[in-house]
Amino acid sequence: MSTPSTTSSPSRWLRAPDALRRGPSVASAGPPRPRPRGAWARRAPLLPALVFMIVVTQLPFVGTLVISFMRWNALDPGNKGFAGLSNYTTEFTDPQLRSSLTTTVVLTASVVLVSLALGLGLALLLDRRFRGRGLVRTLLITPFLVVPVASALLWKHALYNAEYGLLNGSLSWVWSLFGSHNPPQPDWLSQSPKLAVEASLIWQWTPFMMLILLAGLQSRPTDVVEAARVDGATTWQVFRYLTFPHLRRYLELAALLGTVYVVQNFDAVFTLTSGGLGTANLPYAVYSTFYQAHDYGQASAEGVIVVVLSIIVATFALRTVSSLFREETR
Amino acid sequence: MTTAVAGPRTRAHSPARRPGRERRNRGLLGLLAWLCGIVFFLPFAWMVLTSLHGEQDAAANPPHLAAPLTLHGYREFFGSGTGVSPWPPLVNSLTASIASTVLVLLLATPAAYALSIKPVRKWTDVMFFFLSTKMLPAVAGLLPVYLIAKNAGLLDNIWLLVVLYTSMNLPIAVWMMRSFLAEVPVAIMEAASIDGAGLPTVLTRIIAPVVMPGIAATALISFIFSWNELLFARVLTGVVAGTAPVFLTGFVTSQGLFLAKVCAAAVCISLPVLAAGFAAQDKLVQGLSLGAVK
Amino acid sequence: MTPTTLRSTRRVLPPLALAVCGTLLAAACSGAGGAGGGSGSHSINVLMVNNPQMVDLQKLTAANFTKSTGIKVNFTVLPEDDVRDKITQDFSSQAGQYDVATISNYEAPIYAKNGWLASLSSHTTADTAFAQSDILPAIQQSLTYNGQIYAEPFYGESSFLMYRKDVFAAKGLTMPAAPTWAQVADLAAKADGAQSGMKGICLRGQPGWGEVIAPLTTVVNTMGGTWFDKDWKAQVDSPAFKKAVSFYVDLVRKHGEAGAPQAGFTECLNDLEQSKVAMWYDATSAAGSLEASDSPVAGKIGYVPAPVDRTKSSGWLYTWAWGLQKASKHQDDAWKFISWASGKGYENLVGTKLGWSRIPAGKRTSTYSNAQYVAASSAFAKPTLTALEAADPGNPGVQPRPAPGIQFVGIPEFTDLGTKVSQEISSAIAGRTSVDSALKTSQSLAEKVAAKYAGQ
Lengths: 330, 294, 456
Known about the structure:
The complex is a heterotrimer.
Chain A: H1 39-43, H2 47-67, E1 70-71, E2 81-82, H3 86-93, H4 95-126, H5 133-145, H6 148-160, H7 166-177, H8 188-191, H9 193-218, H10 222-230, H11 235-262, H12 267-272, H13 282-292, H14 296-329
Antiparallel strand pairs in A: 1-2
Helix pairs in contact in A: 2-14, 3-14, 4-9, 4-11, 5-9, 9-11, 10-11, 13-14
Chain B: H1 2-12, H2 19-51, H3 55-58, H4 72-77, H5 87-116, H6 123-135, H7 142-151, H8 158-181, H9 186-194, H10 199-228, H11 231-236, H12 244-249, H13 259-279, H14 281-288
Helix pairs in contact in B: 2-13, 5-8, 5-10, 6-8, 8-10, 9-10, 10-14
Chain C: H1 2-39, E1 43-49, H2 52-69, E2 72-78, H3 80-92, E3 100-104, H4 107-113, H5 121-126, H6 137-142, E4 144-145, E5 148-149, E6 151-157, E7 159-164, H7 165-171, H8 181-191, E8 199-202, H9 213-222, H10 239-255, H11 265-273, E9 277-283, H12 286-290, E10 301-305, E11 318-324, H13 331-341, H14 344-354, H15 371-376, H16 381-390, H17 414-430, H18 435-454
Parallel strand pairs in C: 1-2, 1-3, 8-9
Antiparallel strand pairs in C: 3-11, 4-5, 6-11, 7-9, 7-10
């Protein structure tokens, strides 16, 4: 496991887990330096995917950019034209954009961090041997395999509903055990809408985090742990000085992948609260301007702003993460 | 490897420690794991139970756990009330998910090859590009895609979704496939070709064993995310090409009880993903950890 | 290592092969399906809201309409909010995916003005069996633009107050024949807790311009408020508007249903059926469900006109109607469908096949002289007709309005404005914000909309 890495590429972390594998690995040799001769032959297999991605994901943004300077509301077809920057000025003076930005950050950070923490705990539990371990793992990954809309509908109607949801139903039941006919019946979705959305997302994403971290735990060099234990290391010390440093890459990976998906979440916000009560995140805000207000110009301006913000955050995130890994390899 | 990890470590518990306490702790932690498993599974179990109740029982408070079971909700899903068959949307979802997964693999595998086995110059920049497209909000491209599709007559066409889903899953797929391909023993491969082994031999004996599990893992992930997609399917499909998640939202009505049939529909629509995920748990783990575990 | 990986390869290959075959099969199926849809010249696409009346229609179409005309109808059925978005999207871009869609009297004039709907006037003159003159005048008027009819009603509704006669009798309460809101608030306080777990009244609190905003706006109207005055000045923070909203929010918070901020029509219907509320102010079409044979409260409900304050009547006017997209390539087939679905014959079909309480009523005068219907709906037929006849979309309040509409303002911006304001109101009902600050935010939103019109 102590295979010295000769790769010094800044984004070595992209393939970090590779180095953890045993057996013949390219890591020991490092990628051969490509020579100019035959460069196109090397590039050829890359081109279909690259061209496809540019055409399908980048060209529409050009359209978005153009429309963002237009006055174009589909409900008012007679009044269409060049708007200059007015869509942007409207957008920047709109408090709702700021609130949906905050919502996005809070929602993503809380869901990713909490499910990461829960996922770590569950992964540690599952890393031990006990009766029915396989079955428990199956139970635990179920939430991740429920279609997100189905999950959102489940939480909204079958669990949170103030009249007949399971949460209030259980409260009634528990209270009736003590002979009370006036159990508390909180309205979960409107009393704590953000928490409600977050809880349903955490339920879905914890298994995802758990799976990645479990993979990390199971690739841990057992001989070192064994040696440490023989030397009298406590469980905490083993975790702190062996398991955790080893898991760090997997934590980063899980956080990154989780963020990429949760930040774009639409299904839960759309289904649970329809963006009400301060739960509208950026994707929902763009969607509602486009599809509910039918203001194409405004929606495009929002889209452009969101893209610019994403680029800033993505660049920053990628740099931070890659530099973290560079430090670690030194 | 999974069992190999657990094996030696269990043995590592030295007899010098107090075995009784150790065993009790282990038992308690096992119990805790079971408890967590049940807590996480409970909402799903509730969904299944509700789907098997009548509408009045499903909306009862406190809940009627022992209410008589009925397949009413499932009959509704299969169109007993409305005469609407769920098969067209299910077939659409299957088409979109499988076709886009195949397309993803066809595009990602060569790209990953060019990024790992014989890497192009500045391959890291290319990786960053792929990854960054995944970070851009897809919703920002929704309007132009709609307008283009409308003018090209591609609205309500399942193949438009195939193309879009391919673009959504390609970045992660390239990333995953690259990690798997990086495992191909290049030295052995080159040695084999020097020894006169033909390309078929190299492909089947050296590359395939490493790559096939990777392809399976990538395919599974790509399938799941395509099957789950709602936003684009909602906006871009209509009569013909509606997918299963869109069909599911149609069961919620603003007038009348619907909980049991929504739960039944939700179970049915999640079934393909659940089946694939349960059957290929190890592949899922492997795919998500970018090939680090076998 | 090699043996295991080889084994896993063998394990992986069959599912993969299966997947590829599945794709080809699925592709073939969908290809065939697409071709089938294209070749059948006698088929139309209908997009509609998934209310029970539409679901009944969906059930009856193939065996009746298609059987007699040979026209196949492909339905897309979606929840109300989704369906509006989808209809607006398809009609505004004239994409022509759908020939017919359910639109309301809110959309009809706006769509007609934008040139998205085909005029139905020539069809109605030619198709005498349809009997256009039988349509209730207020409903027809609300679907007319520039003298042309642009949509035909499927069912119409107003709003009224429903209450539990048995609960009122047990508590010794009397419901006036034409209650005022002050009396209703008083009754709600007295009926609160009449039975264990029973609240006084159910009022919608769910965000959405078609949800909380509808009953709330009728309260605003009768208490002297309006969204805009006739010169397009936003009036959302005016004293009358504020008085009405405070009244509504206080009433719901004190004596309203549990989970009010998320309660809409369905939740309130459920509450009244499950004896969780004693009164409910909502659409007249609710009566059909309440009096249905499987309803636990059938026969126990009394119906009185919408409560008032400063106006004589305050019920809303709403209809789900069939609009025909201008870009549709199947205009004649589409009219045949509309004529069948909105016709007298369809009401009789539902009455005999599914029961008279389920017919899509509230649109034709003749419905209310049909002996079988009147017998089956004696409890609510008369109050419904009275409410529908009293509704006046042109003049619903105490002051002249710049645009028609009772529970809405007939301008395209209202969906967005109403939805945003509804979220503020819903927050106020949840106690997360005060009525004052909710209306302050709402006023600035309304001012933005007003600015567009004030200059014109």
